[in-house]
């Protein structure tokens, strides 16, 4: 799942990363996922969720606790750290919400269509040598 978020509140980079991660987990649960392989480019999130790092701030500890609760909703949960450049649309998604500042829409779905849904097998048919496009000769 890929998504973009527009915050209506101030958030540090770490808080924004956690908000996005929690939202992604919640969306996967809402979609009926039983097994979740989550990918993140955030070293902080990956290391804290794995238990390698301990949160220094209370707010980060609360996010971590919420993630632990969400993990129990899945039969299996894996978290994988990947380099940001490997997240193909990361830059586009991060800019999408900012680009929509003037838009009052709270939820926008963007679909990618690799090809038209209706095939375009149109053939030109000519019934005569002249039609309405033929110049008038006097």
Automatic annotation (TrEMBL):
Q: Which InterPro entries match?
A: RNaseH-like_sf, RNaseH_domain, RNaseH_sf
Task: Report a single Gene Ontology molecular function.
Answer: nucleic acid binding
Pfam families, per this entry? Answer: RVT_3
Origin, by domain of life? Eukaryota
Domain RNase H type-1: residue ranges: 4-96
Q: Which Gene3D superfamilies match?
A: Ribonuclease H-like superfamily/Ribonuclease H
Q: What is this protein called?
A: RNase H type-1 domain-containing protein
């Amino acid at each position: 799942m890929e998504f973009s978020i527009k915050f209506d509140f101030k958030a540090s980079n770490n808080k924004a990363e956690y908000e996005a991660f929690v939202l992604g987990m919640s969306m996967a649960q809402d979609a009926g996922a039983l097994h979740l392989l989550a990918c993140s480019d955030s070293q902080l999130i990956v290391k804290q969720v794995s238990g390698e790092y301990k949160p220094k701030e209370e707010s980060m500890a609360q996010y971590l606790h919420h993630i632990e609760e969400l993990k129990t909703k899945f039969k299996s949960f894996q978290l994988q750290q990947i380099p940001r450049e490997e997240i193909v649309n990361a830059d586009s998604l991060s800019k999408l919400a900012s680009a929509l500042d003037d838009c009052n829409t709270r939820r926008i779905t963007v679909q990618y269509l690799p090809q038209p849904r209706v095939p375009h097998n149109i053939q030109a048919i000519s019934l005569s040598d002249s039609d309405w496009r033929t110049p008038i000769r006097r």
